[in-house]
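[agent] plan:
  1. take the single chain provided in the ticket
  2. run structure prediction with default settings
  3. attach structure tokens to the ticket
  4. add a short note for the reviewer (M.T.)
[agent] executing step 1
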Amino acid sequence: MASARPRRATDEADAESDADLAATPVSDPQDGPFEPTVVPDSNIPLARSTGVVIRGNTVSGIRATLPSGAIAGFGVAVGAGSLQGAVITGNVVSGSGSAGITLVNNNPNNVLRGNLSSDNGTYGIRLQGALSIGNDLRGNTMHGNALFDASDITDANPADGLSNTWLDNECVTDEPAGALCLIE
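[agent] step 2 finished; step 3 output follows
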């Protein structure tokens, strides 16, 4: 007879915080309640969300061929101004036509921890746009992505320091070079 795993204090805290998030209606102060738009060829679309937890998903093979012949498709795509104060953790993303996990302009103060993003068509994890700042990326693993495993193009002058924190991430190729990956 198999026994259940003992509960940890963090299990209860996680369950409580997840329940609090689920009970909070999603709305915009100016526009009121709304439904997120589902974007074809992206697996986890988000729209104007605060405090969301995206945890434990497996996303693979999100690919589409555009009329131009280009390959597209994102594992976790966070569009402009869609997310702040969120936690993206423990997700496995592979084989996407474009980036595995991407946050574009105006997605500040998010935490990305313990994600695995490999063998994607462009980037493993990418942050882009001047207002995607204050994000904390730690303990992520990115390998075998076509352009860069890790990419942060949120700062016009990265030589003066990045606008996001990248620590203890396992990857080989990064943009800007030498700033995001652990040395292997």
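[agent] step 4 note for reviewer: Residues 1-42 have pLDDT under 50 and may be disordered.
[agent] ticket updated
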